[in-house]
Specification:
With 133 residues, this protein is mostly helical. The chain has two domains: 42 residues; 91 residues. Helix content is 79%, strand content 0%. The chain contains three helices and no strands. α2 packs antiparallel against α3. It is flat.
Length: 133
């Protein structure tokens, strides 16, 4: 019990330390971005759209993960109820189909934009529409 009384106040300091580290990391990334030319005022529309698509795809991935976890929990908690198991299976299948459709749509759009840029002489097939890791 004594040890818990000593450690408990420290638990409130850990999130503050983590936030301080995140702030330092954000400043470092901003400096790197400015050095790479992304921090300038001349933000290109295609770079903005590419970043927006990357953010949307990140949210889609999170939604997919939540749906899969939800279906898995539903399946585990079904207690052998066939109707609940079938509902969980359908949710997993639908989430996977949805993610596949979104990835295919992005791939096709990326290919078309890259091909159009190459045909128009805008580069060697490298598109700003592509999401970089």
């Amino acid at each position: 019990m004594r040890l818990l009384k000593k450690i408990f106040p420290l638990l409130f300091l850990l999130p503050l330390q983590a936030l301080a580290q995140l702030d330092v990391a954000k400043q470092n990334l901003q400096e790197i971005g400015v050095a790479a030319g992304y921090g300038s005022e001349e933000r290109n529309l295609t770079v903005f759209i590419g970043n927006l698509i990357r953010i949307v795809l990140g949210f889609v991935g999170m939604i997919f993960l939540v749906l899969i976890i939800w279906a898995g929990i539903q399946w585990m908690m079904s207690g052998g109820n066939e109707q609940s198991i079938e509902q969980a299976k359908k949710r997993i299948i639908n989430a996977t189909i949805g993610l596949t459709v979104i990835i295919l749509a992005y791939s096709i759009a990326s290919f078309v934009v890259g091909s159009l840029e190459q045909a128009a002489g805008g580069g060697a097939g490298q598109s700003n529409f592509q999401v970089t890791p």
